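Re: [help] complex structure
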Amino acid sequence: MPRFARLGERLDEIEREGLRRQLRPLFPTGPTTAELAGAEVDVFSSNDYLGLARRLRSAWRGCGTGSSRLIAGDRNAHHALEEKLEALFCAPALVFPSGYHANLAVMTTLFESGDRVASDALNHASIIDGLRLSSAKVEVVEHGAASPDGVRGHVVEGLYSMDGDQLELRKLVGSPWLVVDEAHAVGCLGPGGRGASFEQNVVPDVLIGTFGKAYGAAGAFVIGPPELKRLLTSKGRSFIYTTGLAEPAARAALMGMELATDALREQLAENVRRFRSGLHQLGGRVPPGKDHIVGVVLGDRTMQAADTLLDQHIFVPGIRYPTVPRGQERLRFSLSAAHTPEQIDRCLEVLGRCL
Ligand SMILES: Cc1ncc(COP(=O)(O)O)c(C=O)c1O
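Output below.
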């Protein structure tokens, strides 16, 4: 079979299943607005939870680091960022180019051949891929289930990115390593923005956080014991064999951490209350949880609802299989501290027509 025929067949299948994905360039015009195909839209689908991304542009000067941090790519900006994180979490921190890199390094370094590791069924792809790359035996457990006996670790997320829920983390303390990916919670939840686990008064053994969401920059970090930091530095392949986080990104992340204040977190919480109670008044099934990710499951009506919202200049792409299971297709609303009450009310008004 000619080389491209097989690719063509797979593309045809994706088309037949209605699962073709499309890129749509967005030109941000404000913290929560953008130009999309020549029209102004309100953006309700970005992870810029505190509305900081645009405020950080002035920090994006200079160029990349040129090589791995272990070769010639280590910068003062990385260390300043790690010191800031260490002061916040009172534990060693290591900065990575992305959350994906951080998860690959943690899973492959922490877990070895012969280990059994529990992984929550709704974990992010970067956790799944990291565990697959490790030589551990992975036990995928039902969402929110307790740790099976004898596992070496249990990996969960602090705030689930598609369902917007938090697990009861106290139930999971007990296996040697509780690993919590706080990508969607750091900056927003818990004292000082330390994440959902700290909000629940649980200190994970290992915490992964990103700068690409609430902190409005790019990059990620791992918090854990000193031995883990040392091991990640020497054995974490996705730390060693990749170019260090771009220096402007590290500076922007530092600025993002400084700008992520309690006042912004309170503003975000206020916007979430407004959106969730408005959704309740619409008679829609308000998804469980109290936080800034609100997944409205509409099944096969999802893409049509996304189109209706876009017709009214509200941008919330539908989330489909395989990101969520078939039948669980949804609109995933991400609230930001930067949304205005008027934007939220208008979004609810249009959403009301889709329920
Ligand atoms: C739970 C979770 N972990 C990790 C990542 C990856 O982070 P990054 O975008 O910095 O690679 C994401 C990204 O969406 C995520 O949702």
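The first strand starts at residue 26 and ends at 30.
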